[in-house]
Structures are given as structure tokens and as C-alpha cells.
């Protein structure tokens, strides 16, 4: 294995969208028949804007030239609070490793790169949604379960 980590830029947009669709298919148990055309189109728009204006950082993970993993973080601002006076927040997404490369520390290294990049921006309020498979890794890193958050769909 020759694993390398690359911070993505606009030249990587095809791989970014490909990895996003791959992650969504696996996380949501969708086969190739599920129509992802709208998500794909919106992902292109998102990455073009978010990478240019610094609202997102994505790492792509390669074994030589083969894409084997990825991970991203989106940045946003909410109203300031006493626990977060700047209102700056980060949301981790798309942390993924191809099945044959799992349990080798790739996702943990990707997570660490994203956390360090987030902290370099002065952001300490970091959240994510964890799958059952990913939860132990996030807990090992220091993430804790949130009890007060709710969602309206």
C-alpha cells in the first residue's frame, strides 16, 4: 500500500462528486438503480462554490492512483452563544474508506487532518452524524453524543 492524503481543489471536482455519490449510496443502502442525478448536479454546484470561498475542506485518500477514501468538513456561522462566542461551527461529512482498506487507520488519519484544518481556522465547535460503524472511531477521537439536538424534516 502506498497511501497518500490530498487536500482537494477544484481540479478534483469529478472525484469529489464521485466520492460523494459513493458515500451516499453506501450510507443509505442504495444500489445503482437509485436516481442520484439531482444530488450529483447539486454536489457539483456545492463544491465549486464551497471550495472557492473556503466554506469546505475535503481530503481525498489514494493508494497510488486509486481513490480509497475521503472526508470533508463544512464551515458555517450561527448566532454567538456563551459557549461559542464567535458562532463559528464545523460539520464533518463524507468520511469514508473503501471496504478493502478499512481497519488500517485511514479514516482516523483523514479525521485528524480535518480536525487540524478546522482548528487552524479557529473553529472548535465541531459536529457530525455517525453511522454505527463509525461511532467507535469518533468516540476514540473524543467526540461525545449530543442529547439536546432535534431535527425537523
Please describe what this structure looks like.
- With 153 residues, the chain is an alpha+beta fold.
- The protein has a single domain (3-141), classed as Gcn5-related N-acetyltransferase (GNAT) (Aminopeptidase, 3-Layer(aba) Sandwich).
- It has helices spanning 13-27, 37-52, 106-120, 135-141, and strands at 3-7, 56-63, 66-77, 88-97, 126-128.
- The chain has a five-stranded mixed sheet, sandwiched between helices.
- Helix 1 packs across helix 2.
- The longest helix is centred in the first third of the chain and has 16 residues, at 37-52.
Neighbour order of strands in the largest sheet: 1-2-3-4-5
Form type = globular
The count of β-strands is 5
Largest sheet: 5 strands, mixed
CATH architecture: 3-Layer(aba) Sandwich
Structural class: alpha+beta
Query: How many domains in all?
Result: 1
Spans of at least 5 consecutive residues whose pLDDT stays below 50 are none
Helix % is 25-40%
Query: How do the SSEs run, as a string of H and E?
Result: EHHEEEHEH
Q: What's the CATH superfamily, by name?
A: Gcn5-related N-acetyltransferase (GNAT)
Cα Rg = 16 Å
Provide a count of the helices: 4
Task: Provide mean pLDDT, rounded.
Answer: 94
How much of the residues is beta strand, in percent? 15-25%
| CATH domain class name | Alpha Beta
Entry summary:
The protein is α+β, with helices and mostly antiparallel strands and 153 residues long. It is 35% helix and 25% strand.
Amino acid at each position: 500500500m502506498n497511501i497518500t492524503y490530498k487536500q482537494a481543489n477544484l481540479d478534483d471536482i469529478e472525484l469529489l462528486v464521485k466520492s460523494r455519490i459513493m458515500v451516499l449510496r453506501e450510507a443509505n443502502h442504495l444500489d445503482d438503480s437509485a436516481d442520484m442525478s439531482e444530488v450529483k448536479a447539486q454536489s457539483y454546484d456545492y463544491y465549486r462554490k464551497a471550495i472557492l470561498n473556503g466554506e469546505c475542506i475535503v481530503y481525498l485518500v489514494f493508494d497510488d492512483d486509486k481513490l480509497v477514501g475521503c472526508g470533508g468538513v463544512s464551515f458555517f456561522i450561527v448566532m454567538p452563544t456563551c459557549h461559542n462566542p464567535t458562532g463559528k461551527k464545523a460539520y464533518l461529512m463524507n468520511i469514508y474508506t473503501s471496504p478493502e482498506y478499512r481497519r488500517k487507520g485511514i479514516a482516523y488519519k483523514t479525521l485528524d487532518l480535518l480536525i487540524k484544518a478546522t482548528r487552524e481556522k479557529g473553529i472548535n465547535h465541531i459536529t457530525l452524524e455517525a453511522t454505527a460503524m463509525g461511532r467507535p472511531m469518533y468516540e476514540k477521537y473524543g467526540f461525545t453524543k449530543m442529547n439536546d439536538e432535534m431535527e425537523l424534516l
